[in-house]
C-alpha cells in the first residue's frame, strides 16, 4: 500500500463536518478491495466489514473520522463572504488561502488589514470570526449568484514533505488515522480472525461525534478502537501534554478506556516490538471513543492517537512512520482478540 499516495489523495478532498461525502466516496474506493462489504449509513459515515465466517461472531469496530475543520458562508457584503467556524480557531485565519466549495469550487483569501494601518493596540488583539471576511474576487451580484449561503469552506490543499519522514497537510486530523485503518486491513489480509472486523470512516466528529455514535449504536460491537490524533511535541509545548513524532502511537489510559484493552494493547506492542507512548486522559479523551463507549449496554473501548503538530491548522504535520506503527499495532491487536475476551 502506498501510504503517502493514499493520504495525499484523502487530504486533498474538501469535506468539513456535515459536508463529508467527497471524502467518504474517496475513502470508499480505498476500502472496498480490503473488506467483504461496504456501505454508507444515513448520517453519511462509511462502514466496511470483513467477516470471519463464524455464525454469530463477535464484532470489533475500528474508527477514524473523515471530516475536517472548516467554515461555512453566512452572508455576503460587497462581494466579500461572511462566515462562521466549523472547528477553526479565528487566530489561524488572517492571510490564509481557502477553497470555497461552491459549484464549481473557487479559491479565496481571508482578508486582513496590513500592519501599517493597524494601531499598536489592534496588533495585539486576536481577531474574531465575525470580523473576518473572505475575498473571492467577485462583485456582490456575482458572489450572490455563485456562492449560496451555507456553502462550506476549507483550507486550501497543500501536501508537503518535510525532510525524510514528516508529512504536512490540512486534514491530517483524521485522515491519516483512516489510512492507518486501511493499512491494518491490508496487513490482516489472508489472516484468520476470531471475529468480524468492522472499519468505520465516521462523520461529524469535529462537531460532537454523531456519526460514530450512530454507527456504534446500530452495529452493537463488542469492542471498539477509536483512532485519532494527539498533540505532537514542539519546542514550545509541554512534555507532559505532547508526544514525540516518530515515537509511535499514544495508547490512551483513563476513564474512556477499558482497562483490560489498554493492557492488551500495551502487551501486544511489547510482543511485536512496536514503539508506543502512553497518554493519560483523566477525563474525556476528546475522541469518538467517549461517545462510542456508552452506546447500547456499553462497549469495551481503546483509544490510539497519532502525534500531530499544529492541529486544526492548514499545516498539520506528522511522521509517516507513526501511521505504519499504528497499523501494525491495530492488526496485531485484532489478530489476537478471541471470542472469550467479550465475556
Structural notes for this entry:
By secondary structure, the protein is of the alpha+beta class. It has 2 domains: 3-68 and 170-342, Zn peptidases (Aminopeptidase); 70-155, Peptidase M42, domain 2 (Elongation Factor Tu (Ef-tu), domain 3). It is 27% helix and 26% strand. The chain is built from 9 helices and 17 strands. An 8-stranded mixed beta sheet has the order 1-2-12-3-13-16-14-15, sandwiched between helices. The chain has a 6-stranded antiparallel beta barrel with strand order 4-5-8-7-6-9. A hairpin with a 2-residue loop joins strand 4 (70-77) and strand 5. Helix 1 (3-12) runs antiparallel to helix 5 (172-187). The model has no long low-confidence stretch (mean pLDDT 94).
Using the alpha-carbon principal axes, give the shape: globular
Instruction: State the share of residues found in helices, binned by percent.
Output: 25-40%
Q: Provide the β-strand percentage band.
A: 25-35%
Give the strand order of the largest sheet, numbering strands 1, 2, ... along the chain: 1-2-12-3-13-16-14-15
Average of pLDDT: 94
CATH architecture of the largest domain: 3-Layer(aba) Sandwich
What is the rounded Rg? Answer: 21 Å
Low-confidence stretches: none
Number of structural domains: 2
Structural class: alpha+beta
The CATH superfamily of the largest domain bears the name: Zn peptidases
Which assembly state applies to the chains in this document?
Answer: single chain
Intertermini distance: 35 Å
Q: Write the H/E string, N to C.
A: HHEEEEEEEHEHEEEHEHEEHEHEEH
> Under CATH, the topology of the largest domain is which?
Aminopeptidase
Write down the CATH class of the largest domain. Alpha Beta
Amino acid at each position: 500500500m502506498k501510504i503517502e499516495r493514499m493520504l495525499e489523495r484523502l487530504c486533498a478532498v474538501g469535506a468539513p463536518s456535515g459536508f463529508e461525502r467527497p471524502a467518504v466516496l474517496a475513502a470508499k474506493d480505498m476500502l472496498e478491495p480490503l473488506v467483504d462489504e461496504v456501505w454508507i449509513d444515513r448520517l453519511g459515515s462509511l462502514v466496511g466489514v470483513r467477516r470471519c465466517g463464524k455464525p454469530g461472531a463477535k464484532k470489533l469496530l475500528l474508527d477514524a473520522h473523515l471530516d475536517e475543520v472548516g467554515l461555512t458562508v453566512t452572508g455576503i457584503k460587497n462581494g466579500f463572504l461572511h462566515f462562521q467556524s466549523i472547528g477553526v480557531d479565528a487566530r489561524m485565519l488572517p492571510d490564509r488561502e481557502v477553497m470555497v466549495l461552491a459549484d464549481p469550487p473557487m479559491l479565496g483569501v481571508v482578508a486582513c488589514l496590513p500592519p501599517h494601518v493597524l494601531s499598536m493596540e489592534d496588533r495585539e488583539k486576536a481577531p474574531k470570526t465575525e470580523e473576518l471576511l473572505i475575498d473571492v474576487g467577485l462583485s456582490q451580484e456575482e458572489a450572490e449568484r455563485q456562492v449560496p449561503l451555507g456553502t462550506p469552506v476549507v483550507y486550501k490543499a497543500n501536501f508537503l514533505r518535510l525532510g525524510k519522514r514528516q508529512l504536512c497537510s490540512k486534514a491530517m486530523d483524521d485522515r491519516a488515522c483512516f489510512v492507518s485503518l486501511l493499512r491494518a486491513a491490508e496487513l490482516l489480509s489472508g489472516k484468520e480472525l476470531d471475529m468480524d472486523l468492522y472499519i468505520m470512516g465516521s462523520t461529524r466528529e469535529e462537531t460532537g461525534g454523531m456519526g460514530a455514535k450512530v454507527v456504534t449504536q446500530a452495529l452493537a460491537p463488542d469492542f471498539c478502537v477509536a483512532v485519532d490524533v494527539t498533540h505532537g511535541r514542539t519546542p514550545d509545548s509541554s512534555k507532559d501534554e505532547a508526544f514525540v513524532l516518530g515515537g509511535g502511537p499514544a495508547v490512551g489510559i483513563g476513564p474512556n478506556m477499558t482497562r483490560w484493552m489498554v493492557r492488551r494493547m500495551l502487551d501486544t506492542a511489547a510482543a511485536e516490538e512496536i514503539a508506543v507512548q502512553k497518554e493519560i486522559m483523566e477525563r474525556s479523551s476528546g475522541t469518538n471513543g467517549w461517545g462510542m463507549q456508552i452506546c447500547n449496554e456499553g462497549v469495551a473501548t481503546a483509544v490510539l492517537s497519532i502525534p500531530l503538530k499544529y492541529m486544526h491548522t492548514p499545516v498539520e504535520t506528522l511522521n509517516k512512520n507513526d501511521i505504519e506503527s499504528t497499523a501494525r499495532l491495530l492488526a496485531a491487536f485484532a489478530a489476537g482478540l478471541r471470542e472469550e475476551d467479550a465475556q
